[in-house]
Amino acid sequence: MSGPLVTGMGVVAPNGVGVEAYWSAVLAGTPAIGPVRRFDASGYPSRLAAEVDLDAAAYLPSRLLPQTDHMTRLALVAAEAALADAAVAPGTYDPFDQGVVTASSAGGFDFGHRELEKLWRSGNEFVSAYQSFAWFYAVNTGQISIRHGLKGPSGVIVTDAAGGLDAIAQARRQLRRGSRLIVGGGVDGSLCSWGWVAKQAGGRLSESDDPARAYLPFDARAAGHVPGEGGAILVIEDADAARDRGAPHVYGEIAGYGASFDPAPESGLPPTLHRAVTAALTDAAMDPSDIDVIFADGAAVPELDWQEATQIATVFGTRSVPVTVPKTMFGRLDAGSAALDVATALLAIRDGVIPATVHVEPSADYPIDLVVGEPVRRRIRAALVIARGHGGFNSALIVRSAA
């Protein structure tokens, strides 16, 4: 009996809106990091970001624009594309057999920021009524559910950058409980001055002004990451239901998942990422030798890179499985990163190619085989995606070919 199948994908990324546009940019190594354009970041220590260029009015009805944050517009566009890709329309399933699970790390920061400005500048009567929900972590789930009539089990996961994997895992749980289809994944975006202050406070942003040197995981020059926005939404279906309805294509199977939580730094206890990876392998009934590529978290913080590399080596041995971090092209997308990595892994399986980690000169100190330079052509049956959230969240998810 196979696990749930991914039958549709929608991508909104700094280097491409739409699955094929994004994938072409990734294979070409097209970077999308540059100076912040959405607000004046000149007074901050960090001034680079990866923004999504999207004319929301070209995709969404005008009534939705005043009630949604930029982040939610990205999520709505991705969800609509994913459902269209899967050929799911009203009536395909009973509405109560379909749900939504998304991940978020910030909510609608830009919307909330603008409404707070109105409150202090002009008074409470000038604050939009939509502020009551547009800022909320669960708003993407709610808006997708309403727009597409998805009335089944739904929710939101808040585990920072691990959230995209955790949301997909929660989607799988709902399918095991009887749902037939779950729209799942993560789209994030808090590139506004308020969100920027919060990101700066985390102490992990790169302060380089050179887009080619600002985000360098597993590199001796690593000094933090570049934030971005966007992510991916997947249509995840019960395997039997997808086959019964004749889903037009299947990207792959959600085969295994595991999670762990690191102890507090002051405890002196070691990190536990390897436990999440081992749990995912056990869940998938697979051995380390069955994994053809690893999509790493790639924090670009030396201590965290060392933890991840050594924990990978603990499970897989030294330099035995190719590792890649495609998001060096477009930054870390908070809760959207891991979901986009899953979409990228499924495309890698489909086309038999491992995308490269751009800009990075891997340090020999890290015991992993990092793919750099050009994409590597090879048959891929299974891929492991790793995601780590600020505060100790570790998640690992395995996708494999359903052929």
TrEMBL record:
This is Ketosynthase chain-length factor. SMART domains: PKS_KS. Residues 1-401 form the Ketosynthase family 3 (KS3) domain. Belongs to the thiolase-like superfamily. Beta-ketoacyl-ACP synthases family. It comes from Dactylosporangium aurantiacum. The keyword Calcium does not apply. The keyword Transcription regulation does not apply. It comes from the Bacteria. One of its GO terms (biological process) is fatty acid biosynthetic process. Keywords: Acyltransferase, Transferase. One of its GO terms (molecular function) is 3-oxoacyl-[acyl-carrier-protein] synthase activity. Pfam families: ketoacyl-synt, Ketoacyl-synt_C.
